[in-house]
C-alpha cells in the first residue's frame, strides 16, 4: 500500500498543527488521521493482538534467567522455566456514556506496557470488557420515563387551561417549554433529557433511552469503536458486557457467588446501609452522583424531655410554640412526650450536661416518632455464622418485602393516634430516623413523582426553642435549658447539641461567652439569666495531668480567647478528646473508676435500656444517588460479603507485602493498608437495577440482584465469548446451559475430575483450562486511585477466597493513578475542557492524544492532559513522517562507508535512548519513556547532524535511527510507528511484532558525547561574558540591552581564534574529596541508575580528610562534592568519581576539531594541557579547567 502524498509532505512545509491552513483544513492532523485509518485496516487484516494458548507466536515458557524484563513471572511446574507472558487489565468502564479522557489516560497505562512487553518477546493478553450492572442505567432510564410522563401531564394541563389553543397533542418525547417546571421538580439539577442531549445523543433518539436495554445496545459498540480508533492492542474477541443480558457472564458470576457462599464469606442480616430512597436499596459507590466512599456514621441520640409543665407561657416565643402545637397536634402538649434529641459520640459524658445548644437561625421540625424503634434486630453474629443456607434463605424470605420493613407508611390521623412521642430535630436527621424505624412516613401520593416524608407537625426556628426547660438524662441538674450556639451545622447530627462544658472545649467556651455577655444576649435573643448563670461545669472524668475539668484547663493553658479563636480551639478539642478517651477514668455514676474506653459502651447501654436514648445513623457526608435524591442510612435486611473477617483480611495483607505483589508506589500500598484497616461487611444484594440474580434466590418469591461492585472482582479470569452480548456461541460452540458449577470448577479451580453429565468434550474443557492456567495470574491491573477503596480491595479479597490455597493465582500488581485534569483544570463541560475520546481523536489524532496521555504524569497525583502537548505532537509526528519518507525516497544527501568517531558516538546515544525508554516502560514511568523514545531520540539526531557538519549523516545510522524510532515509540504512538515501519521502510512483518532493539551502549562514549556538547555550551557562555565585559558589563533596561547586543554582534567576528585548556587531573583538594566519595556506597535510583545516598554529605563531613581542612577549604570541598554527586553522577554514572578520565580529552577535542570550529564560528582553535599556557593568553582561564570541564580563551588573532 503506497503512502498518501500531498504538498504538505514536503520537508519545507510549515504551519501550526492546531491551526487551519489557507484552504481551511487541518492538513497535518488530517494526514495523521488518514494514516491511522490505513494502519488500523492493516491491523484488522493481520489480527496481531489475537492470542490464545496453542497458537502463540512466542515461546510459552523461557528459562528464568533469560526472561525479558517485566513483572515477576510464575514458575511452570517441572523445571526452571517461567511463563513468557504478560496479562494486563483495566476495570471495565460503565456504559452510561461515551469514554472520556479520564478513561483513556488510565487504560493507556495498561496499553503502553502491553505493547512494550510484546516487543520484548512476551506473549501478551490485553482484553477489555464493558460494565452495565447496577442501578445507574436503570435509574437514568426511569428518570427519563418520569420526565416524559410529566411532560405529557403538563401538556394536558396546558391544553385544558388554554381553550383557545386547539391543537393536537405534541410529541411527548420532545421537550420545549416545560423545562423550568422539570428543573423545579428535580431540585435545580439538570433533567435527564438535558444530560442525554449533552452527551451528543440526537434529539429524536433520546426517548429511546427510557428503555434500559437501549443503553446496552447504544453505548458498548461506540465505546469499542473509540478504543479501536485510539489504537488499543486489545484482543476484542474476548470482549463482553455484564448483566444477565449476557447469559455466559451471568453463569460465571453465579458460580463466583456459589463459591463465596460455600466458603462462608456471604451472610444475611440487617445492617446500617446508605440507601437510595427511590430504589429502597443500598446505594454503593458506583450508584452515586456524589459522596463516593462515604459510609454510615453511628451516634447515640440522647432524649432531652421538654418539661411542658415548666414552659414559661409568658415568654412570647414559647407562647407561639404552644399555639402552633395546639393548631397542628390537636391535643395538649402534655399529652405527648416531647424531646429535643441530641446526637453524641460521647454518651459517657452525659453526667456532665449543663444545657443543650440549638442554632438560633436554624429551622427545626417537630416530628411524630414511635415510642420504640420498629427496626428489626439481627441474631447475634456468632449465631449468624452458624446458620445453614436454609436458615439464611428463610431469614431472607422473611425480610423480602424491603419497602414494608424500611418505610413505615401511615396517614396523619393514624400517626397522631399511635405516636405518643415527638422529636424536635433537623429535617435531614428526621429523614434518616424514619428509615431506621424511629419515625413513621407520610405518603405524598405518586411515589414516582414525590417520595414519602416523615410526619412533621410544623417547623420552628431555633430562636423559638431557646429557654425550653429540659430534663437531661444522667445530668446532676434537674432542669437544664436550650441555649444558642452559632457554630452548629444542620448537616451534621440532629442540629441539637448537648452541652458538657467539663470535657468539651466548644461547649465550655460557648457557655462562658453567654455568661460574660448575658446582657447582650438578653436583648438580642431574650435569654434569661436563670437559664445560664447558675450552671457550672461538672466534674465527671479524671484525666491525668488535666484533672476533672479537662476542657476549662486546656482552654486556659492554650489561651483560647473565644468561639472565633478557631486554631487554638481546635487544638484544645483534639487534645481533650484524645486524652479524655484514652487516659480518662469515669469519676461518677455506677461505672465510677472504669476507663472511659470501657465506660463508653456501658453508659450507652444503660441509656438505651432505660429508653433515655436511641441508636442513630447518618451518612458521614452528603450522598446523592444517580436518581438525584439525597441518600439516607437505613437498617437494611440484605445479603453481605464479610470483608474484614480476621483470617481473610490477614491473608490479603500478607499478600500485599509478600514480594509477589507490586503496588508500583509506596503510596498505593499505604492506601491499601488503610482500606483493609476499616473495610467491613459489604452489601452485595439489590432489588433494583440491572445485573445477575443471586443463584440461591432465583425461583424464590424474592429474587435479588448482585450489586455492581460485587460481580466485578474476578472477571479477569473470564475473558472469552462469541460476541459482547453472548447472543451467539463462541468458537467452541458452548451454550449458557453448558456453564455449570462443575464446568467452572474444572476450568478455574483446576479440579482433577472433569464435570460429569456435560456435553462439552474433554478436549474443549482442557483447551479452556489451558487458557486460564497459562494467562493467570493477572500481572498488571491499572486503575484510578479511587477504586482502591472498593473494587481493587474487593478483587484481592475475592481471589484470596476463591483460590484460597493458590496464592500463585492472586493478582501480581496494581498500578493506580490520580484523576485527569485538562490544562491543569478539572474536566467540566461548563468550562469547555471536557473531552471524550472521540472528540480528542478527531481534534488531535489518536497518536497525539496518546502522547499527551504519556506526558500527563505517572503518580497518584492528578495527571494533567495538556492540549498544547497534543497540538505540538501533531507537528512532531508529521515532520517525523516527512523525514522517513524523504529517507525512503533518497531525498536526503547521506554518506556511506566506514563509521567515523562521530558515527560511533551517535550510535551509542541511540543505544542510551533505547535503554532509558525500556526503563521507563518497565517501571510504568511513561513520561520518562516518552522523553527517551521521542524527544531525546530526536534531539540526539539533531546533535549528530551538528557533529558531522559538512560530512553529512551516515545512511546506515539514519536507517538504524528510523527503525529504532519506529519500534521504541510504538507503545505510545503505534500508528505513526507502524506506518513508518510497514508502509515507508517496508520492513518485514508488523512493528507490533518486532523485537525490541539491542544496541551496544558504552558509558565512556556517552561521556565523550556529553563533554563535547557541554563544552560548546560553556564556551559560548564564556564568549558572551567576555563581550559583555568589553561592552561595560550587562546593561539595565530593555533599550540599553538591545544596544549592547548590537555592540556585541559587531565585536563577535573579531573573536575568531581560541585556545582550549584541558586538565588531566583534578586539583589536590578535589582529588581528596573524590577519594572520600569513592568510599560511599551508591544506591539504585528509580530508573535503575546509580545515585548518591541521601546522607552522603553527612559521611563526607565526618571523613578525617575533610575534618582536617580549614573553613574555606571545607566550603570548596562541599560545593565540589555536591556537584559531582548530584549533577555529574546523574550525567556520567559512577565514572564521575574517577580521579582521571578513562580517555584522552585532548584527543577527543582534536578528533572533533571541525565541529568545534563550526559550532563556535572560529577560524582556528588550539588545544593545550592546563599546565601549558599559551603565550597569547594573559588570563587565568587555564586555572578553571578540570577533567571533563575544559576552559577556553578567545582572541581576535591566532594564538600561536
List keywords for this structure.
alpha+beta; Isoleucyl-tRNA Synthetase, Domain 1; Isoleucyl-tRNA Synthetase, domain 2; 4-stranded parallel sheet; 36 strands; 42% helix; tRNA-synt_1_cat_dom
Can you offer a commentary on this structure?
This protein is of the alpha+beta class and 1200 residues long. Among the domains are: 7-13 and 21-127 and 819-993, Isoleucyl-tRNA Synthetase, Domain 1 (Orthogonal Bundle); 136-230, no CATH class; 296-370 and 408-619, Valyl/Leucyl/Isoleucyl-tRNA synthetase, editing domain (Isoleucyl-tRNA Synthetase, domain 2, Alpha-Beta Complex), CATH 3.90.740.10; 1018-1065 and 1140-1200, no CATH class. 42% of the residues lie in helices and 13% in strands. The chain contains 40 helices and 36 strands. α1 crosses α28 (867-888), α1 packs across α32 and α29 (901-922) runs parallel beside α31 (955-969).
Topology:
Blueprint: H1 27-46, E1 61-63, E2 81-83, E3 85-89, H2 101-119, E4 123-125, H3 136-161, H4 179-185, H5 192-198, H6 212-230, H7 247-262, E5 266-276, E6 281-282, E7 288-290, E8 296-306, H8 316-329, E9 337-344, E10 355-358, E11 363-369, H9 381-385, H10 389-398, H11 402-406, H12 412-418, E12 421-425, H13 427-434, E13 441-442, E14 453-454, E15 456-461, H14 462-465, E16 469-471, E17 480-484, E18 496-499, H15 505-516, H16 518-525, H17 529-532, E19 541-542, H18 550-558, H19 566-583, E20 585-586, H20 596-609, E21 613-619, E22 624-625, E23 632-641, H21 646-656, H22 666-678, E24 682-683, E25 685-686, E26 705-706, H23 741-748, H24 762-775, E27 780-784, H25 791-802, E28 814-817, E29 820-822, E30 825-826, H26 837-844, H27 846-855, E31 863-865, H28 867-888, H29 901-922, H30 926-948, H31 955-969, H32 974-984, H33 1003-1030, H34 1038-1051, E32 1057-1062, H35 1068-1077, E33 1083-1084, E34 1090-1091, H36 1096-1102, H37 1104-1107, H38 1111-1132, H39 1145-1151, H40 1153-1160, E35 1164-1169, E36 1191-1195
Helix pairs in contact: 1-28, 1-32, 15-18, 18-19, 21-25, 23-24, 26-27, 27-28, 28-32, 29-30, 29-31, 29-33, 30-31, 31-32, 35-38
Amino acid at each position: 500500500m503506497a503512502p498518501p502524498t500531498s504538498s504538505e509532505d514536503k520537508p519545507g512545509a510549515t504551519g501550526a498543527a492546531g491551526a487551519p491552513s489557507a484552504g481551511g483544513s487541518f492538513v497535518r492532523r488530517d494526514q495523521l488521521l488518514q494514516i491511522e485509518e490505513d494502519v488500523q485496516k492493516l491491523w484488522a487484516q493481520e489480527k496481531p493482538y489475537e492470542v490464545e494458548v496453542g497458537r502463540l507466536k512466542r515461546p510459552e515458557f523461557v528459562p528464568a534467567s533469560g526472561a525479558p524484563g517485566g513483572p515477576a513471572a510464575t514458575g511452570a511446574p517441572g523445571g526452571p522455566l517461567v511463563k513468557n507472558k504478560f496479562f494486563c487489565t483495566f476495570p471495565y468502564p460503565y456504559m452510561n456514556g461515551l469514554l472520556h479522557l479520564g478513561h483513556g489516560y488510565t487504560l493507556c497505562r495498561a496499553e503502553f506496557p502491553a505493547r512494550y512487553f510484546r516487543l520484548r518477546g512476551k506473549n501478551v493478553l490485553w482484553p477489555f470488557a464493558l460494565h452495565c450492572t447496577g442501578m445507574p442505567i436503570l435509574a437514568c432510564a426511569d428518570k427519563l420515563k418520569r420526565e416524559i410522563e410529566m411532560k405529557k401531564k403538563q401538556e394536558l394541563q396546558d391544553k385544558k387551561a388554554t381553550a383557545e389553543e386547539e391543537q393536537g397533542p405534541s410529541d411527548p418525547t420532545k421537550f420545549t417549554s416545560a423545562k423550568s417546571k422539570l428543573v423545579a421538580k428535580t431540585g435545580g439539577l439538570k433533567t435527564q433529557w438535558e444530560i442525554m442531549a449533552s452527551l451528543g445523543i440526537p434529539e429524536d433518539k433520546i426517548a429511546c433511552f427510557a428503555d434500559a436495554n437501549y443503553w446496552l445496545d447504544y453505548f458498548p459498540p461506540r465505546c469499542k469503536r473509540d478504543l479501536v480508533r485510539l489504537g488499543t492492542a486489545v484482543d476484542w474477541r474476548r470482549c463482553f458486557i455484564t448483566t444477565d443480558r449476557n447469559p455466559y457472564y451471568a453463569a460465571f458470576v453465579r458460580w463466583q457467588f456459589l463459591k463465596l457462599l460455600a466458603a462462608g464469606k456471604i451472610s444475611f442480616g440487617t445492617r446500617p446501609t446508605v440507601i437510595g430512597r427511590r430504589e429502597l436499596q443500598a446505594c454503593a459507590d458506583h450508584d452515586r452522583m456524589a459522596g463516593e466512599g462515604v459510609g454510615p456514621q453511628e451516634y447515640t441520640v440522647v432524649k432531652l424531655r421538654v418539661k411542658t409543665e415548666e414552659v414559661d407561657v409568658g415568654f412570647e416565643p414559647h407562647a407561639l410554640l404552644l399555639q402552633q402545637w395546639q393548631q397542628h397536634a390537636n391535643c395538649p402538649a402534655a399529652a405527648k412526650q416531647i424531646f429535643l434529641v441530641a446526637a453524641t459520640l460521647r454518651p459517657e459524658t452525659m453526667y456532665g450536661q449543663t444545657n443543650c445548644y440549638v442554632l438560633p437561625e436554624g429551622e427545626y421540625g417537630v416530628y411524630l416518632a414511635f415510642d420504640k424503634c420498629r427496626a428489626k434486630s439481627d441474631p447475634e453474629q456468632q449465631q449468624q455464622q452458624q446458620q445453614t443456607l436454609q436458615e439464611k434463605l428463610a431469614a431472607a424470605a422473611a425480610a423480602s418485602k424491603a419497602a414494608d420493613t424500611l418505610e413505615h407508611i401511615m396517614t396523619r390521623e393514624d400517626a397522631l393516634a399511635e405516636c405518643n412521642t415527638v422529636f424536635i430535630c433537623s429535617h435531614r436527621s428526621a429523614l434518616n430516623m424514619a428509615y431506621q424505624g424511629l419515625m413513621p412516613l407520610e405518603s405524598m401520593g405518586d411515589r414516582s413523582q414525590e417520595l414519602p416524608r416523615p410526619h412533621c407537625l410544623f417547623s420552628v426556628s431555633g430562636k423559638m426553642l431557646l429557654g425550653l426547660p429540659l430534663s437531661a438524662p444522667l445530668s446532676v441538674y434537674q432542669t437544664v435549658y436550650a441555649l444558642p450556639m452559632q457554630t452548629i451545622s444542620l448537616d451534621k447530627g440532629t442540629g441539637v447539641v448537648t452541652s458538657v462544658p467539663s470535657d468539651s472545649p466548644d461547649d465550655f467556651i460557648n457557655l462562658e461567652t453567654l455568661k460574660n455577655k448575658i446582657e447582650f444576649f438578653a436583648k438580642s435573643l431574650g435569654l434569661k439569666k436563670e437559664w445560664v448563670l447558675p450552671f457550672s461545669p461538672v466534674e465527671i472524668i479524671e484525666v491525668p495531668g488535666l484533672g476533672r475539668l479537662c476542657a476549662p484547663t486546656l482552654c486556659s493553658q492554650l489561651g483560647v480567647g473565644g468561639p472565633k479563636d478557631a486554631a487554638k480551639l481546635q487544638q484544645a478539642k483534639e487534645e481533650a478528646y484524645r486524652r479524655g478517651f484514652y487516659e480518662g477514668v469515669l469519676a461518677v455514676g455506677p461505672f465510677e473508676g472504669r476507663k472511659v474506653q470501657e465506660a463508653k459502651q456501658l453508659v450507652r447501654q444503660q441509656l438505651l435500656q432505660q429508653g433515655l436514648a436511641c441508636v442513630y445513623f447518618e451518612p458521614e457526608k452528603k450522598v446523592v444517588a444517580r436518581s438525584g435524591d439525597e441518600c439516607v442510612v437505613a437498617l437494611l435486611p440484605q445479603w453481605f460479603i464479610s470483608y474484614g473477617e480476621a483470617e481473610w483480611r490477614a491473608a490479603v495483607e500478607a499478600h500485599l507485602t509478600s514480594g509477589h505483589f507490586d503496588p508500583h508506589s509506596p503510596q498505593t500500598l499505604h492506601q491499601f493498608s488503610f482500606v483493609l484497616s476499616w473495610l467491613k461487611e459489604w452489601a452485595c444484594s439489590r432489588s433494583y437495577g440491572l445485573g445477575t440474580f443471586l443463584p440461591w434466590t432465583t425461583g424464590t418469591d424474592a429474587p435479588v440482584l448482585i450489586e455492581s461492585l460485587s460481580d466485578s472482582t474476578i472477571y479477569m479470569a473470564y475473558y472469552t465469548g462469541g460476541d459482547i452480548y453472548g447472543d451467539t456461541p463462541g468458537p467452541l460452540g458452548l451454550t449458557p446451559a453448558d456453564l455449570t458449577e462443575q464446568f467452572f470448577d474444572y476450568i478455574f479451580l483446576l479440579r482433577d475430575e472433569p464435570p460429569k453429565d456435560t456435553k462439552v468434550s474433554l478436549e474443549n474443557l482442557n483447551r479452556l483450562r489451558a487458557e486460564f492456567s497459562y494467562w493467570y495470574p493477572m500481572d498488571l491491573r491499572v486503575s484510578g486511585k479511587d477504586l482502591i477503596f472498593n473494587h481493587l480491595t474487593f478483587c484481592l479479597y475475592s481471589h484470596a477466597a476463591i483460590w484460597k490455597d493458590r496464592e500463585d493465582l492472586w493478582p501480581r500488581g496494581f498500578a493506580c493513578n490520580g484523576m485527569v485534569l485538562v490544562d491543569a483544570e478539572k474536566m467540566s463541560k461548563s468550562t469547555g475542557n471536557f473531552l471524550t475520546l472521540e472528540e480528542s481523536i478527531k481534534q488531535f489524532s489518536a497518536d497525539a492524544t496518546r502522547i499527551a496521555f504519556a506526558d500527563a504524569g505517572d503518580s497518584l497525583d492528578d495527571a494533567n492532559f495538556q492540549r498544547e502537548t497534543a497540538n505540538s505532537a501533531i507537528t512532531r509526528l508529521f515532520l517525523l513522517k516527512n523525514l522517513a519518507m524523504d529517507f525512503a525516497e533518497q531525498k536526503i544527501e547521506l554518506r556511506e562507508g566506514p563509521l567515523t568517531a562521530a558515527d560511533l558516538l551517535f550510535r551509542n546515544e541511540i543505544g542510551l535512548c533505547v535503554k532509558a525508554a525500556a526503563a521507563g516502560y518497565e517501571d510504568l514511568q511513561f513520561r520518562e519513556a516518552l522523553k527517551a523514545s521521542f524527544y531525546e531520540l530526536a534531539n540526539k539526531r539533531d546533535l549528530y547532524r551538528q557533529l558531522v557538519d559538512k560530512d553529512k549523516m551516515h545512511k546506515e545510522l539514519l536507517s538504524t535511527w528510523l527503525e529504532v524510532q519506529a519500534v521504541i515509540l510504538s507503545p505510545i504512538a503505534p500508528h505513526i510507528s507502524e506506518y513508518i515501519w510497514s508502509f515507508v521502510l517496508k520492513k518485514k512483518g508488523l512493528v507490533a511484532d518486532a523485537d525490541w532493539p539491542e544496541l551496544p551502549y558504552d558509558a565512556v562514549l556517552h561521556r565523550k558525547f556529553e563533554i563535547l556538547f557541554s563544552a560548546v555550551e560553556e564556551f559560548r557562555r564564556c564568549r558572551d561574558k567576555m563581550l559583555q565585559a568589553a561592552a561595560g558589563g550587562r546593561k539595565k533596561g530593555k533599550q540599553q540591552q538591545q544596544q549592547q547586543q548590537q555592540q556585541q554582534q559587531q565585536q563577535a567576528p573579531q573573536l575568531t581564534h581560541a585556545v582550549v585548556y584541558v586538565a588531566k587531573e583534578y586539583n589536590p583538594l578535589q582529588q581528596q574529596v573524590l577519594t572520600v566519595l569513592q568510599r560511599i556506597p551508591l544506591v539504585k535510583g528509580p530508573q535503575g541508575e546509580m545515585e548518591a545516598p541521601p546522607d552522603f554529605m553527612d559521611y563526607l563531613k565526618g571523613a578525617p580528610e575533610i575534618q582536617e581542612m580549614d573553613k574555606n577549604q571545607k566550603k570548596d570541598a562541599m560545593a565540589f562534592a555536591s556537584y559531582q554527586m548530584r549533577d555529574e553522577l546523574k550525567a556520567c554514572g559512577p565514572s564521575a568519581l574517577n580521579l582521571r578520565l578513562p580517555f584522552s580529552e585532548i584527543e577527543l577535542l582534536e578528533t572533533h576539531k571541525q565541529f568545534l570550529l563550526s559550532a563556535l564560528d572560529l577560524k582556528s582553535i588550539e588545544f593545550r594541557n592546563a599546565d601549558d599556557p599559551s603565550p597569547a593568553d594573559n588570563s587565568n582561564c587555564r586555572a578553571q579547567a578540570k577533567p571533563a570541564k575544559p576552559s577556553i580563551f578567545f582572541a581576535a588573532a591566532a594564538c600561536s
